[in-house]
Amino acid sequence: GILGLAFPEISVFKAPTLLESLNAQKQLDVPQFGLKLAYPSELSLGGINFDLIDADTLVWTPVTQKGFWQIGLEDITVNGVPATTAKSAIIDTGS
Questions:
Q1: pTM for the predicted model, two decimal places
Q2: Closest Cα to residue 69, out of 23, 21, 1?
């Protein structure tokens, strides 16, 4: 990606990500980022903007395989009908 938020494990150059570089330089309060994908979009570095979310519904999900942002998947349904039997998913903001 242009910004490169994937893990170094899949980087051609094996370079640290922007987030890792900023964290190593002590430029972040916490090593987190948040994304708002609806218009107008927003990228928060060093934490998440709690003004944009309902903190009671926030669910932390561990990365299950470094490289891509791969997480465990319980289920996906469309109109109450299961849409996949996959047990993992990759979260990606790119096109």
A1: 0.72
A2: 1
